[in-house]
Design brief:
Shape: globular
Oligomer: single chain
Number of strands: 26
Strand content: 35-45%
Distance between the termini: 87 Å
Order of helices and strands: HEEHEEEEEEEEEEEEEEEEEEEEEEEE
Radius of gyration: 35 Å
Largest sheet: 8 strands, mixed
């Protein structure tokens, strides 16, 4: 007897044993229970399928009627088993895994961002409200006679901004701007609790909108350079908390963490009898009563006196990352302007999020230098100085260009 004959005989005998009982019962297949720790595929079962067995699932008497599906079930079963045994075929259900989905594009709760246009012959001396998805200017407001808009700052509320304005006589005031959910200007009112702040074009609002950070004056009336400093003003009461350095210089480019405690800023050390070695990007802990600026702050990145630093550095909501515009070079020597991500703890560059070849548009260092972070800390908006803006998804480093009408380079931007 050949090996094939042996296998046929054994398969037939095994199958006969399966059907040698007095009754053959085919019951509904129980719903499989997924094993712990395995990614089994769930099987959908109709609620009605477990209520009553179908006609071909009822008991079949051995030697009884073979009409209907149950009559040919046993011979078919024998044939199938024989084929499986002889052929050595094992049928395993195939589970197809769906490909991993890509990261969904970030969506901001703030549909609109605000820009301050003015000066430099732009022809547009205004606060403009712009659609972050299309670039469309949805509304604008021009300054009254004798007033110039200098800068804008955003809050965690996508409808509330602050505006720094200066008068022809040298006076400076702060105004609160409210916009509607449709991107229309609702109101622009002077904040009376703040008197004569010094802006210098830089200021920032805490996420809750209750505090504003300003630099102290860069020069005293007698022409000497005073100590560099930062004034944190409570909008509700007008109370000022001052932080002064032990040396002259300037503090600028402010950005708050989401909890309103830490303030990122750039410090330019002018030395004046001291070793000018403190220039750099710093983080100030504002949870105190004021005092020495640098003693209450931590340096993230430093550079030598005369160094260029970064443009528009902004602190992430959790305070762990800093995004900044930097002038760099590719490996081949090509000059580029980049948006980079820094580790706020070490100052180490982590990623390049966006770049453009360097083009001198009136700035000798950067091709563009204006950027803002949205309230969710998931998107950046960069104005490229060439009639466009780029919405950058921080998670994926994907940039989407939108038009930037009515001027090219704003004084400041807030989102």
């Amino acid at each position: 007897m050949t090996a094939l004959e042996d296998r046929l005989r054994d398969a037939t005998a095994a199958t006969a044993a399966l059907v040698s009982a007095d009754r053959v019962t085919t019951a509904p297949t129980p719903t499989p229970t997924p094993a712990t720790g395995r990614a089994d595929v769930a099987i959908a079962v109709s609620p009605g399928s477990s209520v009553r067995p179908r006609r071909d699932q009822r008991d079949v008497l051995r030697g009884g009627s073979t009409h209907g599906p149950a009559g040919w079930l046993v011979p078919a079963l024998v044939a199938v088993v024989v084929l499986l045994v002889v052929g050595g075929v094992v049928l395993v259900p195939r589970v197809t895994r769906q490909p991993a989905t890509t990261t969904a594009p970030a969506v901001s709760s703030a549909r609109y961002f605000v820009t301050n246009m003015g000066g430099g012959g732009t022809g547009y001396r205004e606060i403009a409200v712009r659609d972050a998805l299309t670039g469309t200017v949805t509304d604008s407001v021009s300054p009254p006679g004798g007033i110039e808009f200098d800068a804008v700052a955003g809050t965690a509320d996508p409808r509330v901004f602050y505006v720094l304005a200066s008068g022809s006589g040298g006076g400076v005031e702060v105004e609160r701007l409210a916009i509607s959910s449709a991107g229309r200007v609702g109101s622009l009112n002077v904040v009376r609790t703040i008197s004569q702040p010094w802006g210098g074009g830089w200021f920032a609002a805490s996420p809750d909108g209750n505090r504003l950070a300003f630099p102290t004056p860069f020069a005293a009336p007698n022409g000497t350079m005073p100590p560099a400093g930062i004034a944190v003003v409570d909008v509700r009461t007008g109370h000022v908390t001052s932080y002064l350095a032990d040396r002259p210089g300037s503090a600028r480019d402010f950005s708050w963490s989401a909890d309103g405690r830490h303030l990122a800023f750039q410090f330019n050390d002018e030395g004046d009898g001291k070793l000018a070695d403190r220039s750099g990007l710093w983080l100030l802990d504002t949870d105190g009563s004021g005092g020495d600026l640098l003693a209450n702050a931590r340096q993230v990145v430093g550079w030598k006196m005369g160094g260029n630093g970064y443009a528009s550095p902004v602190l992430s909501a959790d305070g762990r990352k800093i995004y900044a515009i930097d002038a760099q070079q590719r490996s081949g020597g090509t000059r580029v302007t980049r948006v980079i991500e820094l580790d706020a703890a070490t100052g180490r560059q982590l990623r390049i999020l966006f770049e453009q070849p360097y083009v001198n548009r009136g700035n000798t260092i950067w091709a563009f230098d204006t950027m803002a972070l949205d309230p969710t800390s998931r998107l950046l908006m960069v104005v490229d100085g060439a009639g466009g803006a780029h919405r950058i998804d921080i998670a994926t480093a994907r940039a989407t260009r939108i038009p930037f009408p009515r001027g090219t380079t704003p004084n400041s931007i807030a989102w």
